[in-house]
Each structure stands twice: as structure tokens, then as C-alpha cells.
Write a structure and sequence with these properties.
The structure is a single chain. With 227 residues, the protein is mostly helical. It contains 8 helices and 7 strands; from the N terminus they run E-E-E-H-E-H-E-E-H-H-H-H-H-H-E. Strands 1-2-3 form a 3-stranded antiparallel sheet, covered by helices on one side. A two-stranded antiparallel sheet has the order 4-7. A two-stranded antiparallel sheet has the order 5-6. Helix 2 packs across helix 3 and helix 2 packs across helix 4. The longest helix is centred in the C-terminal third of the chain and has 24 residues.
């Protein structure tokens, strides 16, 4: 199977490699079979059943640090990135700006960008990027975060993605408990996040009052700070 990415999943998602085992950390490797079916598993499962190199697989979960499975590696910008990690970082940036954060806006503008969209479409069609494309994408990330807005850094966009996941899961569990105040608060945070690509410190503190309704592994995970 082809390992597509590492991304968030609902915490009750079953592992492909262990029937009945739930991926309680809320993260998983997405593996696509020849017939197009997507399966989910942990790192060992992906290494066993995947036919491509894990180092090239984009990791969209870097801003949610699971205390149950050890510290995640830091998600940085294009500068100072090891050669072997460049491709996975470039693909991550494409997925964040052109697919995963399509509901987000910054200064009332979509996060999509013409050149990145062209690379994204190429990647979707060919399942790969060449070295020249990778370097250009990372240069675009560097320029965007330094010259346009720091919120366009891959680190900040990864944090936006992680917060959106936690907000969605928090609302789902608050709905089960019929906590209307909490639901309204979480919805207000999501609305702010989608239009600003950040949350204010007091909003983050306020969220802490409601994540207690999440299952243990998600409740105990730590979110990285916004840029």
C-alpha cells in the first residue's frame, strides 16, 4: 500500500494492523490500497505494509504532541531543514494551504496561492515532486512567512490544523454531554481561528476549561503555540 500522509483521525478509528485496537492518540498514517481504499495505522503498521519511504511522507500532526507516544519532532520552516525531510515538508505545505485549510482565511483572503496550487495539482496527479519543485515550494514558504505574514509559516499553519482538529473533537464530545455553553464557546473559537489563523492567549486558556471532556489521550496531548 502507498502511505499517503500522517494526519488526524477520530480517536475511535480502528488500526488496520490490530483488529479492535483504536488509534486513541487521534493520529494515524493514511495507507491507500490498490483499489483506492484508505486504511489507518501507527508507524510500525505503516512500515510493515507501506511500499514507500516514510521520510517522504508528509506529517500534518506535528503541532499536537502526544504525551502517550513520546514527543513529536518539531515542524520547522524551509530554512535549516535536513535534505531528507525537505520533500515531506514541501508536501505538507501544499496540503495545508491548498487542501486542509481551505476554510481558513487570512486578511480576508484564501490561503491558496497560484504557484502552490499548480504544484499541488501536479503532486495529486503524479504522487511525487521533483527536487526543483521541492526547493521552490520551501522558498515560497520562507518568503510568505517572512515578507507577507508569519501566520503563513508551515509551523503556524500546522498549529491551525491541530487546533481545528481539537476544537472539532471537543465540540463532538460536548454535544454528547449536552454542554451548550461549551459548544457555543468552541464554535466561537473555531470561527475566530478560521478567519485569523490564530487564537488569542485568553481564548487558548478558555479552551482548557472544555478539553476535559475529551478522551484521555487527546485531553493530555499538548498543542504548540501559534506564531
Amino acid at each position: 500500500m502507498k502511505i499517503i500522509k500522517k494526519d488526524f483521525v477520530n480517536e475511535d478509528t480502528e488500526s488496520y494492523c490490530a483488529k479492535g485496537h483504536k488509534l486513541s492518540s487521534g493520529t494515524a498514517y493514511y495507507m491507500e490500497s490498490e483499489d483506492g481504499t484508505i486504511y489507518f495505522g501507527g508507524k510500525q503498521c505503516a512500515e510493515t505494509h507501506g511500499n514507500n519511504d516514510l521520510k517522504d511522507v508528509p506529517d500534518l500532526t506535528k503541532s499536537l504532541v502526544s504525551l502517550g507516544t513520546g514527543m513529536q519532532t518539531s515542524g520547522g520552516s524551509g530554512s535549516g531543514v535536513s535534505e531528507e525531510k525537505k520533500k515531506s515538508l514541501a508536501i505538507s505545505y501544499l496540503l495545508l494551504r491548498e487542501e486542509l485549510l481551505n476554510e481558513f482565511k487570512l486578511n480576508n483572503k484564501s490561503l491558496s496561492y497560484k504557484s502552490l496550487n499548480e504544484y499541488y495539482n501536479y503532486y495529486i496527479e503524479h504522487n511525487d515532486l521533483n527536487e526543483k519543485q521541492v526547493d521552490h515550494i520551501l522558498n515560497l514558504e520562507k518568503y510568505a512567512s517572512k515578507k507577507i505574514d508569519i501566520k503563513l509559516s508551515i509551523r503556524n499553519l500546522s498549529t491551525c490544523h491541530a487546533y481545528k482538529f481539537i476544537l472539532d473533537r471537543t465540540e463532538a464530545h460536548l454535544s454528547k454531554s449536552e454542554k451548550e455553553d461549551g459548544i457555543k464557546f468552541v464554535q466561537s473559537l473555531r470561527k475566530y481561528l478560521l478567519s485569523h489563523c490564530t487564537l488569542q492567549p485568553k481564548q487558548v486558556v478558555g479552551l482548557g476549561n472544555w478539553v476535559q471532556y475529551l478522551p484521555k489521550d487527546l485531553r493530555d496531548a499538548k498543542l504548540k503555540k501559534f506564531d
